[in-house]
Amino acid sequence: MDPLLRAAIEARENAYAPFSGFRVGAALETGEGKIFAGCNIENATYSLTLCAERLAAAKAISEGERRFRRIAVAADTENLTPPCGSCRQFLWEFCGDIELILVNLQGKTESYQLRDLLPRPFDVSFIRH
Ligand code: THU
């Protein structure tokens, strides 16, 4: 299996999801091929919940990474789980039109471009003019 997909599936094992029971893993690949993984981390206040995708991105960004190739998202669903709207917006800021691969525990995959999941995105180009 592609190491990026494996990293997303493995990261899912660390999910802290006692409230929803819905475990997600994500793995982001840098321009140099380094992988940063994350899982969802819920909170008793609910609204403080961190999504797997944003956590993986924040780990990479905080380590100085700025160029990304692909992101994989793993969940245990037959209908493959896509990133939520907030994660799409967050990823767009740093990753632009990145390849996004969804995977489940049976190894079923689907590939998308982020632009296709986030049409007409708002970004920094509207602020700096
Ligand atoms: N979740 C993610 O981490 N990523 C997604 O792509 C979808 C949703 C998490 C947030 C929450 O902990 C749980 O899944 C249920 O929404």
In short:
This protein has 129 residues and is α+β, with helices and mostly antiparallel strands.
Which short descriptors sum up this protein?
single chain; 129 residues; binds tetrahydrodeoxyuridine; 5-stranded mixed beta sheet; globular
3D architecture notes:
The protein is α+β, with helices and mostly antiparallel strands. The chain has 5 helices and 5 strands. The chain has helices at residues 3-12, 52-62, 85-95, 114-117, 124-127; strands at residues 24-30, 35-39, 68-75, 99-103, 109-113. β4 and β5 (109-113) form a beta hairpin. α2 (52-62) runs parallel beside α3. The radius of gyration is 14 Å and the shape is globular. The mean pLDDT is 97. Bound molecules: tetrahydrodeoxyuridine.
Topology:
Blueprint: H1 3-12, E1 24-30, E2 35-39, H2 52-62, E3 68-75, H3 85-95, E4 99-103, E5 109-113, H4 114-117, H5 124-127
Parallel strand pairs: 3-4
Antiparallel strand pairs: 1-2, 1-3, 4-5
This protein binds tetrahydrodeoxyuridine.
How much of the residues is beta strand, in percent?
Answer: 15-25%
Identify the strand order in the major beta sheet: 2-1-3-4-5
Bound molecules: tetrahydrodeoxyuridine
Describe the main β-sheet briefly.
5 strands, mixed
The overall strand count is 5
Residue ranges: pLDDT <50 for 5 or more in a row? none
Q: Classify the helix fraction into a percent range.
A: 25-40%
Broad shape: globular
pLDDT averaged over residues: 97
- DSSP helical segment count: 5
> What structural category characterises the helix and strand content?
alpha+beta
End-to-end separation in angstroms reads 44 Å
Reading the helices and strands in chain order gives HEEHEHEEHH
Radius of gyration: 14 Å
